[in-house]
Amino acid sequence: MKSIWMISLIVSSLLLIVVAFRNRLTFQWVKRFTLHLIAAAAVLYLLNYSGLISGYEVPMNPTTIGTVVLLGVPGIALVLGLQTTLF
Question: Tens digit of pLDDT for each residue in 28-87?
């Protein structure tokens, strides 16, 4: 079963690289994405440990960071709303 997942990961990674080179993604795009990723992780870290949202703790995992990178501040509200609704 692990070999199927590994093959799937390798194939999808190779296809992602092909798409990136075919569409000629610039270094500027990669730089901007990386800065947004770092900023989202920093904001989540500060919110968790500053006490601004007492009673809540937003987990630091790829899903929540990706949501915040994609949606920005509304992404934080979405994660907190889902956490309140589901737990």
Answer: 777 888 888 888 888 888 888 887 777 778 888 888 888 888 888 888 888 888 888 887
Work out whether the CA dihedral 69, 39, 61, 78 comes out positive or negative: negative
79, 58 Cβ separation under 8 angstroms = yes
Measure the CA–CA gap between 61 and 33, rounded to whole angstroms. Answer: 17
Give the SS3 label for residue 25: coil
pTM of the model: 0.61
DSSP 2: H
Q: What is the rounded CA–CA span in Å between residue 3 and residue 43?
A: 37
